[in-house]
Specification:
six-stranded parallel β-sheet; alpha/beta; 21% strand; Aldehyde Dehydrogenase, Chain A, domain 1; globular; five-stranded parallel β-sheet
């Protein structure tokens, strides 16, 4: 297993020098044209074999005609987005030397993600668009679907565009040891994108750190909705409904804060199949409970901000209010990756916010890419000086 993963990673690493914007654009267009109904049949095998998955995980795994069409459309749209601008800034020093700040590729980047086929295309597409190579590793439940996407869609598209097909590699085993190997190859995979449930992803991040591998981790999530005393009840209803259109996603409504718990739309929550809980957890990652919402009373804006900052992952929070001053206090005080006023946290998505699919949502509290990470973030900064 280790030999196979090392070989895929080394081949991806060696392919980076051959990638260029024109070729990648062509490859993404070709890949979009190769996504067809064959993918549905392969995915059906994964779904049939996926015993024991909860409702949310099964929803993430399953493809239908609309989702397959969306995969192809996202690749087409990604192909037409402008390439990453390589020159970031420039100036001349007093001694006459010319300084230019350049954005250069990271190299080969690993990605470990949940059993969610669209993520394979999102991540590989974003990495290629930024002229990086990819080595993918998915949950065992999606291994057939993701293998098809790599071997029958992405690699042939790269070859037809005149680029090395090895620029997209794959961990070809569902064994979890594959993920640990993926984060232990700093010479060829200096960066690994991690997505999935909290503790599993956190453990992989710790393993990566021991090997000197950097990570972009998307381990936890959950959206916060704060219903202020000056909220419009109709808007509260709309925000709750819009925030719970899907259960197994990180940006759905997880924590509902209210100045007055009587403001909580209990009938609507019940109609949407939600159960109200007192404890606070990221419900999208609790297999046995995929449809709860935590409801809590707060004493006002300051406490709502404190709870959102200190007791959640910091993914996204929104305030529902007609009081502009209260909204501004909430937006200024919240330190998470996305802050909203009278808008749903479901918008915390690379495609919806930036027009580019994301590799994940980074909630780290350190400098670097934060929030939805797209191809525009996947680079290293280099200073070039000409004397």
């Amino acid at each position: 297993m280790r030999e196979q993963i090392e070989a895929e990673a080394r081949a991806a690493h060696e392919s980076v020098a051959a990638l260029h914007d024109e070729g990648v654009t062509s490859a993404l267009r070709i890949a979009a044209s190769r996504i067809d109904d064959r993918l549905l049949a392969v995915n059906a095998e994964d779904v049939a074999a996926a015993a024991g998955l909860d409702e949310g995980a099964l929803d993430r795994l399953t493809l239908d005609e609309a989702r397959v069409a969306a995969l192809a459309e996202q690749l087409r749209e990604l192909a037409e987005l402008p390439p990453l601008e390589r020159a970031e800034d420039s100036w001349t020093l007093e001694n006459g030397a010319r300084v230019e700040v350049r954005r250069i590729p990271v190299g080969a980047v690993g990605a470990n993600f949940e059993a969610r086929p669209n993520v394979a295309v999102d991540v590989a597409g974003q990495l290629l668009k930024s002229l990086n190579a990819a080595v993918l590793r998915t949950g065992g439940a999606a291994i057939r679907t993701v293998t098809h996407l790599v071997d029958e869609v992405l690699r042939p598209a790269l070859a037809e565009a005149g680029l090395p097909p090895d620029a997209v590699g794959l961990v070809r085993t569902p064994d979890r040891e594959g993920a640990r190997i993926l984060v232990s190859l700093p010479e060829v995979l200096p960066l690994v994108i991690l997505r999935g449930s909290g503790e599993t992803t956190a453990a992989l991040a710790r393993e990566a750190a021991q090997h000197g591998v950097r990570t972009l981790a998307h381990a936890e999530g959950g959206g916060v909705l704060y219903v202020h005393s000056a909220a419009d009840p109709a808007k509260v209803q709309e925000l709750v409904r819009a925030s719970l259109d899907r259960l197994g996603v990180c940006n759905r409504l997880n924590l509902l804060l209210c100045d007055d718990v009587s403001q909580a739309p209990a009938e609507l929550l019940e109609k949407l199949g939600m159960t109200v809980r007192d404890e606070l957890r990221e419900w999208a990652n609790v297999p046995e409970m995929v449809a709860p919402v935590t409801v809590r009373a707060v004493s006002g804006v300051d406490e709502a901000v404190r709870v959102a900052n200190e007791e959640t992952s910091g993914l996204a929070a929104t305030i529902c209010t007609e009081d502009a001053a209260a909204a501004q206090r909430f937006l200024d005080g919240y330190r998470g990756t996305a802050a909203y006023w009278n808008a749903t946290t479901r918008l915390t998505d690379g495609y919806k916010l930036t027009g580019a699919p994301e590799t994940g949502i980074n909630v780290d509290r350190v400098p670097g890419p934060r929030g939805p990470v797209t191809y525009r973030d996947l680079y290293l900064r280099q200073y070039r000086v000409v004397g």
